[in-house]
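Model the whole thing, not chain by chain.
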Amino acid sequence: MGQARQNDALVVKGTIEVNGGGLEVREAGSGRPLIVISAGDQAQIVPLVNGLAENNRVLAIDVSAAERAPASSVLQGLSRFGVERFSVIGISRGVPLAIAIAIAAPNQIDKLIMMSPPPWSEIDDQLLAGLPTVAAPTLVLVGTSDRSGSADSARKLREKIGASQLLLIYDAGALIAADRPDACASPIGEFLDHGVEYVVCHDSQKIRP
Amino acid sequence: MKASFFASVPYAADAGTRDWPAPPILCDREAGVKTMSRALEQAQFAEELGFDWVSVSEHHYSPRIVTPSPMIFAAALTQRLKRARIALLGPLLPLTNPIRVAEELAMLDAMSDGRIIVLFLRGTPNEILTYRNNPNESREITQEGVELILRAWTEPQPFGWEGRYFNYRTVSVWPRTVQEPHPKVFTSGNNPESVRFAARHRIGLGMSFLALTTIKERVRMYYEEAAKEGWTPTADDVLYRFFAHVAETDQEAASTLGQGKVDLSKVYNIKQTLMDEVTGGYRPEMREIDRPFLYGGPSAAVDQIGELRECGVGNMDMSFIWPGVTYPQQLRAMECIGKSVLPQIRDL
């Protein structure tokens, strides 16, 4: 079942043109638009995307060909997919573009989510300077076994963005989405629903209804 | 070498049972009061004798050790002891909310001005029945709990935790611990997997009632695993709990000890079928102990502690409870160690 679903996930829908090149866009699920920006091995994010695609229209963009793609080009490209207001998830080296989009188009962003952000020194200074202007409810996830420098970046992002939450994913390393996809998808789903109010528990604690 | 007095807080009367759980009707209410006051006096006596730590543990539903909440007893100790460190050996993480544990230990660290030490444990097999936790998951729960508590003490900003067994969205512990980055932490070294865990997380190794050869092997493994993680433990990172009975002479120690033995597998008397259900039939290295590890006159005791030090142990936690040894005899053994042994082993 798991294998079949993995094969069914993410269908190529086209490309977004940036700097004369093309960023492949793949899609899964239906519902609220959710842009997932990552770089590199796309198989790593399939289990997470499968989880998110149950309630969202996921458009996955692999930016490994152009990590510094301008946010404006990506926003233009997304509008051609009929996506105007959306939430965005940046994973690892996809985090800077997710931040850039959140800064460039605050009125279009519903929620900003960042997973395993790259080391602070690898994030463009201009982006860092714009962090306090990010208005979208923001969730930063990092694995407790991640030794890549993500944890330090995650803490700083949490500090610099006003409406933000930091979530530690236990027993996950730098490949957080692959290590514990369900442990990421579940709180992300709640964050998409409730924003920073996702801290409120709505699950019944009754044992014998 | 650091010496710790284990304040086991035994019921100060004869309950007449070793069954677990012991029926509450057997607990005389006044004896309950005496149990606590006597144990606090004994802990203060240990400090006066020069013991470096007073330790307290967590056990439930039994007259044998009446500290279901080690935090409460430790809180009282912070107000009675002026110098000795207070070691909680230790909170049973499968039975608790780890964030609450982190908060209470931080309070204790502030109340004692930084004298708290802690060892996190899964609990003896019967303890897992206390609040009906799954015995098969107790090790994983404990390990996740340790990591969560360490984070709760060190993360500078509020955070959430998505674990396998614990799930929090808002963690932000006040007060911060006095000790930086946090109180000294030990975990169990009673099995090899736990030894690897301690090394991986750069925390101390605590063992109890093991044979010297086993201690030596576990410490060797601890050093090997720590080297793989890029650090080197010291004797301060290794703790061993054992029984002690010392007198002015070997002969006096023998005459006051009597013929009693301790069978660690029967300390808590529960049905064998129930024990098998909890442990899956696994028999841990729990053995019949013929005599206390530390036993005899001062000279013999100093030699035995020297052997322990050679195994890599730098902290010894002593229980003076032994079948047939009366409370006054326990006090006498403590006094003998304090006056005749501790001055000789300080620099080991």
